[in-house]
Amino acid sequence: MMRNSYFINVIRFVLLILVQVLVFNKLNFFGYINPMVYILFLYWYPIKEKRQLFLLLSFLLGFMVDLFSDTVAIHAAATVTIAYLRPTIMRFCFGVNYEFQNFKLTNTTRAQQITFLALLIIIHHLVFFTLEIFSLANTLLILKKVLAISAATLILCLLLSSLFSVKKE
Amino acid sequence: MQQIINFILRYKNFLLYLFLLTISLALTVQSHSYHRSKYFNSSNWLTGNIYKTTSSITTYFGLVEENKKLVEENKRLHTLLFNQKKEDSMQLDTANIIYKVIAAQVIKNSYGLPRNYITINKGSNNGIKPDMGVITSNGILGIVENTSKNFATVQSILNTKSRINAKIKNTNHYGSLVWDTKDFNTVQLVDIERLVPLKIGDTIVTGASSSIFPENIPIGIIKKFDLNNSQSSYSIDIKLFNNMAAIKSIYVLDNVQREEIIELEAKTNNDAQ
């Protein structure tokens, strides 16, 4: 069981990077909308695993995407931020429930899952575009990009997550 | 001592987060101001080969368009060649060539970010070095920034760090080509004085004061112009000749005299101090 979960996460890690850089980075919808679906890795990652490993993995995930898209380390910074904030966000979305042993993402309501995913995406995009544009004079541009791309990312992540969801028993 | 260790143990997640964030921020901030790190870009072995593999599949879909473009370019060059005044003998000697041309293919293109880089399938093994100019059959594309053995990244003109010397065709009014990140088919020409007569539709070409590009490489046409806030110089919107979203075949220009020029300039600067 344990090894199976490692295996799935490694496959997810590699596949999400490839899908991100080879498909979604080339969309350029309206000239600038490139959804960042690799955030799903943080959404799917097991809750009970060690946090240090999770932080390191998230950093690596972001950094690999950075390497492919020539953005130095902006994806890495944004991803490691949401990885660090994930427990806080989960407590906000799922209440104290999530600290119980038998807590599972599939047992929560749809609304809770969407809130969780949306918060991850919005925080990620805020950090990402602030660093990318790197000037407070362009606050409006940052907000516009965050809103448009968050919406696109959320829709695609929801579609992907329902496509590859684990069957509810 | 005990307390310090306890502190570290209690906040180890936060400290790890801070550490990772600092690394990424340091890399990012450094890259905003100066050349990016030599290794953290898509010209490295892993990313280069993945992009090469996928591009070798996807290029098939654009072959017809690409062929048309190349035939069009051949036609133009033949026209130039046949209408040239005949010299007595063909020049076969390569000793007085200034620009060597290396052909390459784009394997990764990007135009939706504020700092766009293009990855190409030739590298230092093919004689490509940083700071060489890159053009397509339609016009200017960018400057080589990093190379690995088999790949290179090109800083596109759609990059806020890019500043290229440009002028209005057939005049001597020079300005700098920059990009405001808004539209990937429009770039801006700044620092043209207000006294210069301008017309919409005028052609913009590269200027002479750079050792990277030869003079008169086409860039685009004037789409719109107005005086900037200080009212002393124009800011001009230029529609590019290149369609930046569909670029495949490119040429890298190697200025044979560049090293000599740089050396001379460095020497002059040293003497002046």
Automatic annotation (TrEMBL), chain B:
This is Cell shape-determining protein MreC. It comes from Arenibacter arenosicollis. PANTHER family: CELL SHAPE-DETERMINING PROTEIN MREC (PTHR34138). Belongs to the MreC family. Keywords: Cell shape. Residues 106-253 form the Rod shape-determining protein MreC beta-barrel core domain. Transmembrane segments: none annotated. The gene is mreC.
